[in-house]
């Protein structure tokens, strides 16, 4: 027993999450839906304990366990912190919405815990098998969350679409894994990298398998051309669930994307770099141009998310430590912008229901000036206006691309940013200059207002002092763990 115990130390945060989720499930079965608030608070406590144990017991040192299938290092710690924060904020802002729509079921925070556990396993995957296990644990819970509002046709439709297309992407991923294993003879990332190192003739089956795996992972971050599920699922799912989809799962999938390519296929950079450049450009352009014609705020944010994944992939396309640093900085900033924006959407309601059309934001500044200013700050940051947090995120990924000689990619990203600025500024124009349609109701809760306020402050012109300066050091520490 004493010999086995040390191997579990790197996995303590995941063990905490798994035990916490199972304990809450048993508690919820006996207490029913009336225990929603208690379950949400206990879920937040579980996330906090997992975060503390991760930071204190792991500390960022590289540790491998379960026969090399699970790895914990600075990169994993950095991304897991973002995932835990994203999940915690979503649980925090969900309560009022869930009660108002009569879907405050005790399973909701438990499903978020299980999805978060899957994301943590994805981030620490060091083997193609553990990669798939973590990915499927996350995916299966997300399918259920999308259809959480069973009495609403759009929600059940979103869950069904997500499930069908997600099953297709999982099939593509497994097909790629089978090719890699068949031609390389291993599923371990380190062994795989060693077997391909210096090889003059890389088996074509390995390259084909890698491409199929990239297609499956691109679906998880809703990168073009695997983005078709995103607008419908974002629009049909309950708004807090949409906020969850847009945040933590994207962080985990990007982390997995980076670890697979940089750790398992470092010598195939010329092959995978071409694919990353293509999906990065396609995502930036599709996200910029198709969002121009959207009238629903959630569909607008869906295409915005697609575009932002394209910007993040610019850093990965560089294939350097600076590129990964830029990606880490970008995804952390993206998380604050996205969660703040969705929290703001949750505050916008009238007597007839939630406000979802962009035109319904007309005159918000005259009804609730602080909220209008906060939303405007987040919109400007999403657009990448200089001195706001979103600008610094793009600055670091574009700088890494230029240093790697990919200046055309950076230029296309800059042009896409200019186009996307139009629809962000349109939201600001509607809020401040259009005539009010009707008043807005209050009662959205202090937690939601707090999240909006903190997000707006983090993304304000003070962002460099509050967020960027410490974030750059943490991102550099995390990127070095990938052994560039």
Explain the layout of strands and helices:
Blueprint lengths: L11 H20 L4 H22 L5 E3 L4 E3 L1 H27 L6 H17 L4 H19 L6 H32 L4 H8 L7 H17 L9 H7 L2 H8 L1 H17 L4 H21 L7 H22 L2 H27 L1 E2 L2 E2 L9 H4 L1 H15 L5 H15 L3 H27 L12 H13 L4 H18 L4
Antiparallel strand pairs: 1-2, 3-4
Question: Can you walk me through this structure?
Answer:
The structure is a single chain. The protein has 20 helices and 4 strands. A hairpin with a 2-residue loop joins β3 and β4 (353-354). The model has no long low-confidence stretch (mean pLDDT 87). The relative contact order is 0.09. It is globular, with a radius of gyration of 21 Å. It has a domain at 267-484. The protein has a two-stranded antiparallel sheet. The chain has a two-stranded antiparallel ribbon with strand order 3-4. The protein has 484 residues and is mainly alpha-helical.
**Low-confidence parts:** none
Question: Mean pLDDT, as a whole number?
Answer: 87
Largest sheet: 2 strands, antiparallel
Helix-strand makeup class = mainly alpha
Helix content percent band = over 70%
* Separate helix tally: 20
Largest sheet, order of strands side by side? 1-2
Taking all Cα atoms into account, the compactness measure Rg is 21 Å
User: Strand portion, in percent?
Assistant: under 5%
Please state the overall shape, judged from the principal axes of the Cα atoms. globular
Distance between the termini: 36 Å
Order of helices and strands: HHEEHHHHHHHHHHHHEEHHHHHH
Number of strands: 4
